[in-house]
Design a protein that fits this description.
This protein is an alpha+beta fold. The protein has 3 helices and 13 strands, in the order E-E-E-E-E-E-E-H-E-E-E-E-H-E-E-H. Strand 8 and strand 9 form a beta hairpin.
């Protein structure tokens, strides 16, 4: 089974993240990436102000995908996560949002964005124990229908929509935290298992 790194092609003007979707279940379509169903959920950080927070992209996390007859894992390096988060705002995409990667939404805007770099990160205050290098996003929800779905638990997380190049290799970055070590071990074991076949 292939393990594929997705990255930003700096020569391709459309490479990167176009929108953030609020979602419940996973999906993917060829080279169009729609990542969902992560173990990290949204946090309602301010009900009165209608703010939600969550992980938009997690580095070095092996994500199982199936496309027709092909099964594989994808992942993003810390470098790609940072670059994607920066390009998202540089290109003015903070107002681009969808529901389940299908319905374009109005009234959902990214108002805060950061990369987790410390155990004292703001995300910890909301019990979002994500790995170092994770791209966190806070969004303002002015859309009443979406707000009702957040409150009822129908919408459980963020998902990115974008285009990425790919290559078959592992990141050369040092692995520092437990989640990343576990992800690296899982990928290594998967490679060993498939090489034995």
């Amino acid at each position: 089974m292939d393990i594929i790194e997705l990255f930003i092609d700096e020569e391709d003007e459309v490479s990167g993240i176009e929108a953030i979707s609020v979602v419940e279940n996973p999906a993917i379509e060829s080279d169009f990436i729609a990542l969902k169903k992560q173990e990290f959920k949204l946090a309602e950080i301010d009900k009165e102000k209608r703010l939600i927070m969550g992980a938009a992209l997690i580095p070095n996390k092996p994500i199982y995908r199936q496309n027709e007859d092909q099964e594989y894992y994808i992942y993003f390096s810390k470098t790609t996560v940072r670059k994607a988060s920066e390009l998202f705002f540089i290109r003015g995409n903070q107002n681009n949002a969808t529901l389940e990667h299908q319905l374009e939404l109005k009234g959902l805007t990214a108002v805060e964005s950061w990369i987790v770099e410390s155990e004292q990160d703001k995300s910890r205050m909301y019990d979002l124990n994500v790995p170092m290098g994770t791209w966190m996003v806070s969004m303002k929800v002015l859309n009443d229908e979406v707000w009702e779905q957040v409150k009822s638990g129908v919408v459980k997380g963020f998902s990115i929509e974008g285009y990425f190049a790919d290559k078959l290799q592992r990141p050369n970055e040092p692995i520092k935290d437990k989640a990343e070590v576990k992800a690296q071990k899982t990928i290594k074991r998967l490679k060993e298992l498939f090489n034995e076949l």
